[in-house]
Design goal:
Chains A, B: GO terms for molecular function: DNA binding. The structure is a homodimer. Chain A is built from six helices and three strands. Chain A has about 140 residues and is mainly alpha-helical. Chain A folds into two domains: about 35 residues, no CATH class; about 100 residues, Arc Repressor Mutant, subunit A (Orthogonal Bundle). Chain A binds a DNA duplex (30 and 30 nucleotides) through helix 5.
DNA sequence: TTCGATACGCACCAAAAGGAGAGTGTCGCA
DNA sequence: TGCGACACTCTCCTTTTGGTGCGTATCGAA
C-alpha cells in the first residue's frame, strides 16, 4: 500500500535528495486520488458497474439527485481518465451511451471495500455523531 | 456490495412502495460516502494509519500541502464521525494528539484498494489523458 | 404545424471550499 | 524585554462546485 512512500524514504536515506521521478509519481497518484475520490464519480461508477451500459438520462436517473451539468462533467472527466467509453450513435434524436472500461471496472472493484464499510458501519457513524453533538452541547 | 439497493428493489417489487427505513439507510450511506470520499480525509487517514498517533502540526507536515484551516476541519469531522480520537494534554505549550479508532482503521483498510489501484494504474490514467487531449485537439 | 424526445452547451447565480495571514494565551529561554 | 513554540480561531479573499433555466438540432408523431 505504501510502496511509493517507502521507496522515497529509502532513496532519501541513500542519496539525501528526493528524485524527481518519484515526486512526479506521488503527485500523480494524489491527483488521481483527488479526482476519483469524488462523490459523483463514485456514484456514477457504481451505477455503470451495476447496469452495464447506460445512456445519459438513464444514468442520471439511476444515480439520482445529480444535475445534468454535473453528470456531463463527471462523465467527461471519467472519459478523459479512461474509466468510461462514450459511444455516440449518430441518429436523431441523439443516442449516446456509456460503458466502463477495464480500468473503470478495476476502480469500481477497488471502491467495493469502501461501500461495504459504509454499509457495515453507518450505524456506528451516526452513533458517533450523536455522541459528539451531545458532548458539544451538554 | 449492493445489498441495500437489492433489498430496496426486492421490497419495492413486493409492496409497490419504498419503505422509509431503507430510504433513510441509503441516504445515510450516501452521506457517509460523500463525507469520507474526500481528498483530505483520505490523506489524513493514511498519515495516521502509517504513523499511529500524531500531533496537529506533525500531521499537517506529513500530509503536506494542507492549510491549518482544512486540517482542523478534516480532523474535527473525523472526530465527529468516530474515525479519530482527539486527546488534549493540558500543558503549556498545548499538546493535542490524534489516533485512529477501530472504525478509522477499518476505513483505512477499505481505502487500501483504492490506493493500490491508483499506484497500479496511474500510468494508464495519464496515457488516457494524453490520448484524450490529442483527440480533442487534433 | 407544432410538439416531444435526446444529449447536451451556455450563461447566470448562490453557496461552499479553500488559502493567506493575523491574532491568542502562556511558558521558557535568551 | 521579547521571541518562539503549539494548536488553534478569525477574518478576508479567491476559486470551485453546483443548480436552474434557456437554447439547439432534427426527426417522427399528433
Amino acid at each position: 500500500m505504501h510502496a511509493i512512500r517507502e521507496a522515497m524514504a529509502a532513496m532519501h536515506k541513500r542519496s539525501e535528495e528526493i528524485p524527481p521521478v518519484s515526486k512526479a509519481v506521488e503527485s500523480l497518484v494524489r491527483q488521481v486520488i483527488a479526482q476519483v475520490a469524488d462523490k459523483w464519480t463514485m456514484l456514477v461508477l457504481e451505477a455503470l458497474e451495476e447496469h452495464g451500459t447506460l445512456r445519459f438520462t438513464e444514468c442520471g436517473r439511476i444515480v439520482g439527485g445529480i444535475s445534468q451539468k454535473m453528470l456531463t462533467k463527471t462523465l467527461r472527466e471519467m472519459e478523459r481518465d479512461g474509466l468510461v467509453v462514450r459511444t455516440v450513435h449518430p441518429v436523431i434524436p441523439p443516442h449516446v451511451d456509456y460503458t466502463l472500461t477495464e480500468l473503470g471496472r478495476e476502480l469500481s472493484a477497488a471502491f467495493c471495500g469502501v461501500w461495504t464499510w459504509a454499509e457495515t458501519y453507518h450505524a456506528e457513524v451516526s452513533a458517533a455523531r450523536r455522541a459528539f453533538r451531545e458532548r458539544e452541547e451538554g
